[in-house]
Amino acid sequence: MRIIKLFKNHVLALVTAVALIIISCNADLALPTYMSEIVDVGIQQGGIESPAPDTIRAESLSDLELFMPEDDMATVEAAYSEPDAEGIRTYVGSEADRAEDGAVSDAISLPETVVLSLEQGVDASTVADGMTGTLDMQTVRGACEAGIIPKEKLVEAASAMSDSMGSMGGSIVKQRAVSYVQQEYEAQGISLTDVQNSYLASMSLKMFGLCAVSLVATILTGAVASHTACTIARDLRRQTFDRVMHFSPAEIGKFSQASLITRCTNDIQQIQMATTLFIRMVLMAPIMGVVAVMRVLATHTGLEWAIGVAVIAVCAVVGVLMGLTMPKFKKMQKFVDRVNLVAREMLDGVMPIRAFGRQDHELERFDDASRDLMDTQLFTNRAMSFMMPLMMLVMNCVTVLIVWAGSHGVNDGVMQVGDMMAFISYTMQIVMAFMILTMVSVMLPRAEVAAERVEEVLSTQSSIKEPKRPQLPAADAPRGELAFKNVSFQYPDAREDVISGVSFTVHAGQTLGVIGSTGCGKSTLVQLIPRLYDVTGGKVTLDGIDVRDLPLSELRRRVGYVPQQGMLFSGTVESNLKFAGESVTDDAMREAAAIAQATGFIEEREGGFGSEISQGGGNVSGGQRQRLSIARALAKRPEVVVFDDSFSALDYKTDARLREELARTQKEAAIVVVAQRIATIMHADQIVVLDDGQVVGQGTHEELLRSCAAYLEIAQSQLSAKELGLTQEEISAVMEGGSR
Ligand SMILES: Nc1ncnc2c1ncn2[C@@H]1O[C@H](COP(=O)(O)OP(=O)(O)OP(=O)(O)O)[C@@H](O)[C@H]1O
Known about the structure:
Layout: H1 2-5, H2 11-44, E1 55-57, H3 58-65, H4 70-79, E2 88-90, H5 95-98, H6 103-120, E3 122-123, E4 134-135, H7 137-145, H8 151-164, H9 169-187, H10 192-245, H11 249-255, H12 257-282, H13 284-299, H14 304-348, H15 350-355, H16 359-385, H17 387-411, H18 417-458, E5 482-489, E6 499-506, E7 511-516, H19 522-527, E8 537-542, E9 545-546, H20 552-558, E10 559-562, E11 571-572, H21 573-577, H22 586-595, H23 599-604, E12 612-613, H24 622-635, E13 640-644, H25 652-665, E14 670-674, H26 678-681, E15 686-691, E16 694-699, H27 701-707, H28 709-718, H29 721-724, H30 728-737
Bound molecules: adenosine-5'-triphosphate (ATP).
């Protein structure tokens, strides 16, 4: 499972969590045992834990010893101190010997029962045939001391009495022994209320201690789980974002921006929740179940079958609910993706939506996506709302079953009320553990889908790869020399080349203009320079080296790219202009702003270069955004500057001044300008005319006017024949001849 793989680097945290869970489960599950002790010992036995009293009068112990075989007598004698001045003997044996089934307990219980009966008077005929009258302890003691009744006879009589009690013997002996101890304490002047209260106080203290241990362990488990889950989510977000940052537009297009955002946010959130659940629930439930089963088996109540019934009932309920909801859970993530996609598209296009009055239509589209998500969520939530009541029903039925079966055990004297209560608690814990496991198993597949989607991003390699054997231009190689050599390119999913057979060379200080009708491949052509895409045929070289052999960082440092859509980042003007990094000095920034004709409006803004830029450059005009984008590319002083239709939002005057400044200052850089306006590129040293991805003309403005029909057509659409310096005959000749 992918979720488990995420814990690869968090083994220590997992081990710590398991240790803490074991501690808290043991503490939690010890509580029902204590509760049972409080009922059985604290309440029913008045706080008297063992038939072996803490203190006993010497004569009382002698009476008891009359009914003990020699070895039992030795055991008991060894367990009590010598009588003190008041004739009181104190228990000095081990606690194990005093506990249920301990040596001292076993040895002393039956004699206590016999002595208690004798002290109340016993019909002599029930002891020996032919005897009449009432036997009491004093008589028996006297007869034994006088040698009338041998001690062996008394031991035999006690044992016969035990046998006659049959299966009820154990619990009757225990109850009577406790009564004997109570009587003995009273005779010593010890308050029975004090004994009971001190027992209850000590049990409460122990239970409180266990609660505290469980509380601390549970809090620590929660802290470990949250920390681990947050760390896993943070690392995943970082890795996913890092991977996306290295994606070329092809991979971004493959996933879609909306899906990448959902994967980086919602999907990782799901994973985070699942990892927390995994530690807190999935690890806890089996541990809780195992500890509870161990304790249940130790109770020997004979009601273990009730647990089997409960588990089968829980599995049946959860199985039905899971069967109904699981397919819907799997669909849910796709619906979230769609809502995000529609929402993003609507927010991006809020202006045209308003301009075309399509709000209602878009709202309907959003409602459709949202309704699908809502319907699925409603179905799953409704189905899951049956879970809790059904579980409670199962639990309550099982409780009734245990009480019904247990009451027979209590009636027969083979079970104590407290034991039955403890058994109910353990059964509930086991059922809970199963319930938690099954509920989590509903949630985990959803997180599994999310993990799969995140892994898909992480395992996708960018089609733009670092060179295996990176090369740098030789020290004496010309700087700022860009060449296309028979370049062709096809988009990943397309069938035909978007551009083909393009060749040109631009040197430092020169300008290359690229012009052509819309969709002819101009942007695609220049995107090959900074390797936003890789050529599919031919090669692009910079300073004599194939751009695919230059380290990517080196290539991107050498190429300044101004995209068609000026895009700014939230921050200040300065942070945007210094986007290339520390290497951009204040002087370089100001010089770039001046070339881009941006200084004027920057200084007019409050705060100048420190003035705020909002997300996406929303608080500057389209032309200002373009100028800041141009300044940003120039500030890093690249060897090649690519302007992808970046002057389109500038007025003619600013456009002209900017080009003048570029020509004056960029003597060591090659400039590539994609334009729709003839005026923008007419002064270029070389112009490439594209038509449907093919070069249909190449040369200077003057040359193309006289040789390239496509170029002339564009020029004519923007300038008059007079402005072009052509006669009507010359125009006709070019048009008739087509491009030569
Ligand atoms: N990511 C893409 N996947 C597939 N085809 C694409 C992709 N981007 C652009 N195209 C197609 O490639 C062709 C050239 O697109 P390109 O953006 O390079 O044209 P352009 O000359 O810059 O257009 P414009 O002047 O309108 O900006 C177009 O037909 C376009 O539909």
